[in-house]
Amino acid sequence: MLDVKQTLSDAGESMEMATMYLNDELQRIRAGRANVAILDGVRVDSYGSKVPLNQVASVMVPDARTIAIKPWDKKAIKDIEKAIMDSDVGITPENNGEMIRLNLPQPTEERRKDLVKQCNKIGERTKVQIRNVRSDIKEKLKKAIKDGLSEDNEKDAEDSLQKLHDKYIKQVDALLDEKQKEIMTV
Protein backbone atom coordinates (compact mmCIF):
# COMPACT_ATOMS: atom_id res chain seq x y z
CA MET A 1 0.00 0.00 0.00
CA LEU A 2 1.09 3.58 -0.71
CA ASP A 3 2.88 5.41 2.11
CA VAL A 4 1.10 8.77 1.94
CA LYS A 5 3.54 10.66 4.19
CA GLN A 6 6.55 9.45 2.20
CA THR A 7 4.83 10.27 -1.09
CA LEU A 8 4.07 13.82 0.07
CA SER A 9 7.63 14.17 1.37
CA ASP A 10 8.99 13.10 -2.03
CA ALA A 11 6.67 15.58 -3.74
CA GLY A 12 7.90 18.38 -1.48
CA GLU A 13 11.50 17.42 -2.22
CA SER A 14 10.88 17.46 -5.98
CA MET A 15 9.20 20.88 -5.77
CA GLU A 16 12.07 22.18 -3.61
CA MET A 17 14.58 20.99 -6.22
CA ALA A 18 12.64 22.83 -8.93
CA THR A 19 12.78 26.12 -6.98
CA MET A 20 16.49 25.61 -6.25
CA TYR A 21 17.07 25.13 -9.99
CA LEU A 22 15.16 28.34 -10.68
CA ASN A 23 17.26 30.22 -8.13
CA ASP A 24 20.49 28.97 -9.75
CA GLU A 25 19.28 29.90 -13.23
CA LEU A 26 18.22 33.40 -12.12
CA GLN A 27 21.64 34.02 -10.57
CA ARG A 28 23.26 33.35 -13.95
CA ILE A 29 21.24 36.10 -15.60
CA ARG A 30 23.24 39.29 -15.40
CA ALA A 31 21.27 42.27 -14.27
CA GLY A 32 23.87 45.00 -14.64
CA ARG A 33 25.77 44.28 -11.45
CA ALA A 34 28.89 42.13 -11.48
CA ASN A 35 28.20 38.68 -10.08
CA VAL A 36 30.58 35.72 -10.39
CA ALA A 37 27.57 33.37 -10.71
CA ILE A 38 27.15 34.42 -14.36
CA LEU A 39 30.38 32.50 -15.07
CA ASP A 40 29.20 29.26 -13.42
CA GLY A 41 28.35 27.69 -16.76
CA VAL A 42 31.73 28.50 -18.35
CA ARG A 43 33.89 25.40 -18.94
CA VAL A 44 37.57 25.83 -19.80
CA ASP A 45 39.59 23.33 -21.82
CA SER A 46 42.43 22.50 -19.43
CA TYR A 47 44.89 19.68 -20.08
CA GLY A 48 42.46 17.87 -22.35
CA SER A 49 39.29 18.09 -20.25
CA LYS A 50 36.58 20.67 -19.70
CA VAL A 51 36.61 22.05 -16.15
CA PRO A 52 34.68 24.87 -14.45
CA LEU A 53 36.35 28.28 -14.68
CA ASN A 54 36.78 28.55 -10.91
CA GLN A 55 39.03 25.46 -10.97
CA VAL A 56 41.66 27.09 -13.20
CA ALA A 57 41.48 30.70 -12.00
CA SER A 58 40.40 32.92 -9.15
CA VAL A 59 37.33 34.98 -9.98
CA MET A 60 36.83 38.29 -8.15
CA VAL A 61 34.50 41.29 -8.27
CA PRO A 62 36.67 44.39 -7.70
CA ASP A 63 33.76 46.80 -8.30
CA ALA A 64 30.06 46.78 -9.26
CA ARG A 65 30.71 46.68 -13.02
CA THR A 66 33.83 44.48 -13.30
CA ILE A 67 34.71 40.82 -12.90
CA ALA A 68 38.43 40.01 -12.69
CA ILE A 69 39.75 36.55 -13.56
CA LYS A 70 43.32 35.69 -12.57
CA PRO A 71 44.44 32.30 -13.94
CA TRP A 72 46.70 30.18 -11.75
CA ASP A 73 48.63 29.10 -14.85
CA LYS A 74 49.38 32.05 -17.15
CA LYS A 75 49.45 29.67 -20.14
CA ALA A 76 45.73 29.03 -19.60
CA ILE A 77 44.76 32.69 -20.20
CA LYS A 78 43.99 32.09 -23.90
CA ASP A 79 41.88 29.01 -23.09
CA ILE A 80 39.93 30.97 -20.48
CA GLU A 81 39.39 33.84 -22.90
CA LYS A 82 38.17 31.42 -25.59
CA ALA A 83 35.81 29.68 -23.15
CA ILE A 84 34.24 33.01 -22.17
CA MET A 85 33.84 34.02 -25.81
CA ASP A 86 32.23 30.65 -26.67
CA SER A 87 29.84 30.76 -23.69
CA ASP A 88 26.49 32.55 -23.57
CA VAL A 89 27.78 35.18 -21.11
CA GLY A 90 27.72 37.80 -23.85
CA ILE A 91 30.69 39.87 -22.62
CA THR A 92 33.94 40.36 -24.49
CA PRO A 93 36.91 39.71 -22.21
CA GLU A 94 39.86 42.13 -21.97
CA ASN A 95 43.21 40.44 -21.54
CA ASN A 96 46.30 42.29 -20.23
CA GLY A 97 48.58 39.22 -20.24
CA GLU A 98 48.18 38.44 -16.54
CA MET A 99 44.49 38.93 -15.87
CA ILE A 100 41.20 38.92 -17.76
CA ARG A 101 38.65 41.64 -17.05
CA LEU A 102 34.98 41.53 -17.92
CA ASN A 103 33.36 44.96 -17.93
CA LEU A 104 29.62 44.71 -17.60
CA PRO A 105 27.85 47.42 -19.56
CA GLN A 106 24.80 49.17 -18.17
CA PRO A 107 21.88 47.33 -19.85
CA THR A 108 19.49 49.40 -21.96
CA GLU A 109 15.78 49.58 -21.14
CA GLU A 110 15.05 47.17 -24.01
CA ARG A 111 17.69 44.70 -22.77
CA ARG A 112 16.23 44.88 -19.26
CA LYS A 113 12.79 43.99 -20.61
CA ASP A 114 14.29 41.07 -22.55
CA LEU A 115 15.99 39.84 -19.37
CA VAL A 116 12.68 40.03 -17.49
CA LYS A 117 11.03 37.98 -20.27
CA GLN A 118 13.86 35.45 -20.05
CA CYS A 119 13.36 35.19 -16.27
CA ASN A 120 9.61 34.73 -16.72
CA LYS A 121 10.17 31.88 -19.21
CA ILE A 122 12.44 30.08 -16.77
CA GLY A 123 9.93 30.74 -13.99
CA GLU A 124 7.07 29.35 -16.05
CA ARG A 125 9.06 26.19 -16.81
CA THR A 126 9.63 25.78 -13.07
CA LYS A 127 5.92 26.24 -12.33
CA VAL A 128 5.09 23.59 -14.95
CA GLN A 129 7.58 21.26 -13.28
CA ILE A 130 5.88 21.82 -9.90
CA ARG A 131 2.43 21.26 -11.43
CA ASN A 132 3.65 18.04 -13.05
CA VAL A 133 4.85 16.77 -9.67
CA ARG A 134 1.41 17.55 -8.22
CA SER A 135 -0.30 15.80 -11.11
CA ASP A 136 1.89 12.68 -10.79
CA ILE A 137 1.21 12.42 -7.06
CA LYS A 138 -2.54 12.88 -7.61
CA GLU A 139 -2.44 9.95 -10.05
CA LYS A 140 -0.63 7.82 -7.47
CA LEU A 141 -3.25 8.72 -4.86
CA LYS A 142 -6.11 7.80 -7.21
CA LYS A 143 -4.47 4.42 -7.90
CA ALA A 144 -3.89 3.91 -4.18
CA ILE A 145 -7.66 4.09 -3.55
CA LYS A 146 -8.00 0.93 -5.67
CA ASP A 147 -5.24 -0.67 -3.58
CA GLY A 148 -7.09 -0.01 -0.33
CA LEU A 149 -6.38 3.62 0.65
CA SER A 150 -9.47 5.19 2.18
CA GLU A 151 -11.09 8.08 0.34
CA ASP A 152 -10.79 10.30 3.44
CA ASN A 153 -7.03 9.69 3.58
CA GLU A 154 -6.79 10.36 -0.15
CA LYS A 155 -8.69 13.68 0.22
CA ASP A 156 -6.47 14.73 3.16
CA ALA A 157 -3.37 13.85 1.14
CA GLU A 158 -4.67 15.83 -1.85
CA ASP A 159 -5.28 18.85 0.38
CA SER A 160 -1.76 18.59 1.78
CA LEU A 161 -0.41 18.23 -1.76
CA GLN A 162 -2.27 21.35 -2.87
CA LYS A 163 -0.84 23.31 0.08
CA LEU A 164 2.66 22.14 -0.87
CA HIS A 165 2.03 23.16 -4.48
CA ASP A 166 0.78 26.62 -3.46
CA LYS A 167 3.77 27.14 -1.14
CA TYR A 168 6.30 26.44 -3.90
CA ILE A 169 4.43 28.44 -6.53
CA LYS A 170 4.56 31.41 -4.10
CA GLN A 171 8.32 30.86 -3.70
CA VAL A 172 8.75 30.89 -7.48
CA ASP A 173 6.73 34.11 -7.76
CA ALA A 174 8.80 35.70 -4.97
CA LEU A 175 12.08 34.74 -6.66
CA LEU A 176 10.85 36.14 -9.97
CA ASP A 177 9.66 39.40 -8.38
CA GLU A 178 12.99 39.85 -6.62
CA LYS A 179 14.96 39.26 -9.83
CA GLN A 180 12.70 41.60 -11.82
CA LYS A 181 13.27 44.38 -9.30
CA GLU A 182 17.02 43.76 -9.49
CA ILE A 183 16.96 43.88 -13.30
CA MET A 184 14.76 46.96 -13.60
CA THR A 185 16.70 48.98 -10.97
CA VAL A 186 18.97 51.44 -12.75
Query: Would you count the extended β strands for me?
Result: 6
Q: State the helicity in percent bands.
A: 55-70%
Structure class: alpha+beta
- What's the SSE pattern? HEEEEHEEHH
- Enter the CATH topology name of the largest domain: Topoisomerase I, Chain A, domain 4
CATH class of the largest domain: Mainly Alpha
CATH superfamily of the largest domain, by name, is Ribosome-recycling factor
CATH architecture of the largest domain: Orthogonal Bundle
Function: Responsible for the release of ribosomes from messenger RNA at the termination of protein biosynthesis. May increase the efficiency of translation by recycling ribosomes from one round of translation to another.
Protein name: Ribosome-recycling factor
Organism: Prevotella histicola F0411
Subcellular location: Cytoplasm
